[in-house]
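Example S7 (structure tokens).
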């Protein structure tokens, strides 16, 4: 049996970063930028007002005070999006709104509240300035955010909402990113029924397809749901064949020692098996190999195949440990691991057979220290244990277990501010 690290290393050696693709910026959230983005414009493009007020010449405000207003003639009003045809000359002012380009001749903005505007009739055509204002006050300079020709976002940047905004601010509606991998998902098992069907006696609902598809979405992939295959060779082969255009194929179930676990037989025919079991719990009967497929040009290629155990917890845990890093590598990400923390374990865990245990735990922070409490029964069929958990507490394979109060490593599945 190989270790978790050996298994991951093997899987990662079979996957590579995918090609670049031009995409609308909103579709690029979470993707890796595949080009250096330079600006073809200044941002802001023109000097503009940071406040609602009056654009004036600063020297016209000298000596101004609440008791000694400096009276200026108002020659125009300029709003955001338009440009005044007039020039501010000595003893004149142009009424200006936030974001409007600063008119020629003006060198500062006097805010509304520093004028006597509310006390006077509009028809007076004049404004009283009630304080001295320095040159440059409340003017946002052209190019103060971004200058024409500058490198704004580097190739390799992971696109977050702020990068989507920056791209839009440059007028970039589309950008080159590493494309998202298509991950085909095939559930296997004669007992499975899809969630939109009534449940006959003796059957169970197929949850793996949905939990795995949701995990694929969460790490930036595109799930391609292939439905349910029966535990028969021809049904499985037909299912496999529908997934040959994908970048990765995930099957769930059929990889343990049962009479109907035919995935491995089919795998041996349709591709090759690289390894079969991993020293971990849950998730021991994890299979990895490649399936023979064809690329767009009809050339032979190998599709990485992950054969997850059927138990719902096992398939989710093996996804987080192996499929997620592989998908992230394909999308060009550098950080492939979930955050790890040290926590005080609040329940004993016994390790009976020298495997690495990933126990479902609820991590909380109390008095600056992380505590991890088990979610309850740890059977690999108890899917609600995943739903309760925000982390997986790890017991190393070479330890007989951990006692309450021991420090353990926890792989965080979810991370939020309350932790
Ligand atoms: P297997 O690995 O096929 O032997 O399945 C192990 C256990 O997981 C069995 O109890 C199956 O019924 C269950 N199981 C397998 N596939 C699924 C699935 N897609 N959704 C829910 N449970 C499953
Ligand atoms: Mg099965």
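Recovered sequence:
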């Amino acid at each position: 049996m190989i270790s978790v690290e050996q298994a991951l290393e093997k899987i990662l050696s079979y996957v590579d970063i995918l090609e670049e693709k031009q995409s609308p910026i909103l579709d690029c959230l979470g993707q890796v930028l595949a080009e250096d983005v330079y600006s073809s414009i200044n941002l802001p493009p023109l000097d503009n007002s940071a406040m609602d007020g009056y654009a004036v010449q600063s020297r016209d405000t000298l000596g101004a005070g609440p008791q000694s207003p400096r009276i200026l003639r108002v020659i125009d009003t300029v709003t955001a999006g338009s440009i005044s045809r007039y020039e501010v000359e000595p003893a004149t002012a142009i009424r200006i709104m936030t974001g409007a380009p600063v008119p020629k001749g003006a060198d500062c903005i006097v805010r509304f509240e520093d004028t006597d505007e509310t006390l006077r009739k509009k028809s007076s055509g004049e404004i009283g300035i009630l304080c001295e204002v320095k040159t440059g006050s409340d003017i946002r300079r052209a190019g103060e955010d971004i200058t024409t020709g500058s490198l704004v976002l580097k190739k390799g940047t992971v696109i977050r909402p702020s990068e989507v905004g920056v791209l839009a601010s440059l007028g970039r509606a589309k950008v080159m990113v590493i494309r998202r991998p298509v991950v085909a998902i095939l559930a296997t098992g004669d007992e499975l029924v899809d969630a939109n069907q009534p449940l006959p006696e003796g059957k169970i609902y197929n949850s793996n397809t949905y939990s795995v598809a949701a995990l694929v979405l969460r790490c930036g992939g595109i799930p391609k749901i292939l439905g349910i295959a029966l535990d028969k060779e021809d049904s499985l082969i037909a299912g496999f064949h529908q997934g040959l255009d994908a970048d990765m194929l995930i099957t769930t179930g059929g990889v343990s020692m049962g009479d109907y676990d035919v995935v491995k037989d089919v795998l041996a025919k349709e591709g090759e098996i690289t390894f079969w079991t991993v020293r971990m719990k849950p998730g021991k009967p994890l299979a990895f190999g490649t399936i023979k497929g064809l690329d767009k040009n009809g050339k032979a290629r190998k599709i990485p195949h992950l054969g997850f155990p059927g138990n719902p917890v096992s398939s989710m845990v093996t996804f987080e440990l192996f499929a997620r890093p592989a998908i992230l590598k394909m999308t060009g990400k550098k950080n492939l691991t979930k955050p790890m923390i040290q926590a005080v374990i609040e329940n004993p865990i016994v390790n009976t057979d020298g495997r690495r245990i990933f126990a479902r735990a609820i991590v909380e922070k109390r008095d600056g220290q992380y505590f991890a409490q088990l979610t309850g029964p740890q059977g690999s069929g108890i899917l609600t244990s995943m739903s309760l958990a925000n982390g997986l507490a790890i017991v190393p394979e070479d330890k007989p277990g951990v006692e309450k109060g021991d420090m353990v490593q926890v792989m965080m599945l979810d991370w939020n501010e309350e932790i």
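Notes on this example. The longest helix spans residues 312-330.
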